[in-house]
Amino acid sequence: MGIRKVVGIGESVLDIVFKGDQPQAAVPGGSTFNAMVSLGRTLGVKSPDIPLVMVTQTGDDYVGDIVASFMKANNLRTEGVSRKAQTHSTVSLAFLNESNDAKYQFLRDKSPLADSFIEIDFHEGDVVVFGSFFAVNPSLRDYTRRQMRNAHSAGAVIYYDINYRKNHQSILSETLPSIEENCAMSDFVRASSEDLMCIYGTDDAAKVYNEKMSSLCKNFICTHGDGPIEVFCPSGHYTYEIIKVDTVVSTIGAGDNFNAGFVYGLVGGAVSKEVVSDMKQENWTPLVEVARKFSSNVCRSIYNYVDKDFVDCL
Question: Does residue 128 contact residue 156 with C-beta atoms inside 8 Å?
Answer without folding.
Answer: yes
